[in-house]
Amino acid sequence: MSPIFGSMKEVKCPNGPRFILKNPEQAFSFFFPEYKVLINGIIKELANVDIAVEKRVKSQVEGLSEDYAMLQSHYKVAYLTYCSNPCSDRAFEMLNKTNSDIRNRIFRLQEIRAGTYASSKAAENVEAIISFRKELRSTLNRSAQVYKEFRNTMPPSLKRTAKMTSVFMDMRDAAKKGEPQSSSETIKAYLNSDDAGERLIGIAIVESNPADTQYFDQVLRIIDGESKSAFEQYQAMRTIGKMLSNLLNSQKIQLQNALERQRNYNEEKHQWIGRGTDRWWLSGRLLSALEKSS
Length: 294
What we know:
The chain has helices at residues 3-7, 27-31, 34-45, 51-84, 89-120, 126-153, 158-177, 184-192, 196-208, 216-226, 230-243, 249-262, 278-293; strands spanning 8-11, 18-21.
């Protein structure tokens, strides 16, 4: 048995099974172990910066550090609420919102740490800013390698999915807050790449700016039979879901047809969405949203 399943228990729900921690009071440290590590890393980096930068960064870190205990308590309440009724879509969405808030805090810590490092290397000048942007681009490439490592070396499990999701969120947030404007040709090359990590970068960049629908066709192809994995198909569906309000009617019809086709599970036809999976639940929500928007 995988260690993750030893820590979790299955709850059968109408939309498919969900898993909750056997010890829900430890949820924060289980799902977000990097939070405290980042704070300690920033404090260590402060030894290499000047006094002005140290004072500014220290005040930011102290605020986040003081929030740490309160954040743990808040997450404990949110997770216990979810555990009391894990089949509830509302409870599930509220927990996801809390997870998103914590990931944003983690990304803020990553920004502070990166900014502290850049400051220690004279980031006030243009040359350092360019270097900082290159580092952000490198972060995407490193994340792609980490994603492939998790996928290729870990057995299928909730822990692997959680780790890959965390990597994807890091990619998306980097694209949203710091990635230099990539050309449309570069983004399309990512989405059409045979490399699973590059494809995920492309999806992350598109999700970071869902108002730009020029990549609809590429994302739709990933959903409709060309995905390299269930995880990739799920993230592509999430991304296209954020585009819904900006899609043309013709695009909505294309999406509806693709989702209905994929839900008719057939491996030979590359139709991958089976009943009882998260993708079945998500595709159902997308179809409902499409129906309401028509």
